[in-house]
Amino acid sequence: MAASAEKEKVKWTTTIIISSSLKSCEVATALENRSHKVRYSNAVESGSIIFSCTGVAFLLMDTKECFMTAEEIFLAKIEKFINIHQNSFLILSAAFHGLEEWKLMFGIQQRFLGSKLRILPVHNTVNAVNLMCTIGKITSKPHIDSICYRMTATKAYIIEHSPVWKTLQKINLTDSFNPN
Questions:
Q1: What's the average pLDDT block by block, 10 residues per block, for the chain (180 residues)?
Q2: Whole-model pTM above 0.70?
Q3: What share of the chain is helix, strand, coil (3-state, %, to 5)?
Q4: What is the edge-to-edge ordering of all strands in the sheet holding 118-122?
């Protein structure tokens, strides 16, 4: 137990590719302050942040900017982004998520229904950075293996201690049903 506690205290860092358009953005500064290796690129979509070790990509959009630009323009930007990145997240930032902001999110969800786009509303830079780092960390190789192992162990424990499973074993129905 102490060994796993020590592992958790080790600071997780990775290389993050950030669109050059976000160079002066608070999010980029916050990621640099967390000791991540930040690289800026003109080759990635404007407003995007990519965690290179996992391939997770985030597109930062402010709801105010969405309201000021034509719907076709920001929807085309989102479509291009999700066509490039398999594991894509749209981070919609607003100080307050009121009726108009929720309508915007609902419209984007409807438009990209069936795609792999996930929409994450945030209120500020701290929320956005914490969210991105958490998703980036849990999808990285050593952490995803640990999570898969824990989920498998939890599943086995639940099956072993399930009253339903014990009842099935008592009436000899376990041969016809195998959860594995």
A1: 51 83 88 84 90 87 88 90 91 88 90 90 91 85 76 84 78 59
A2: yes
A3: 55, 20, 30
A4: 37-41, 15-19, 48-51, 56-62, 87-93, 118-122
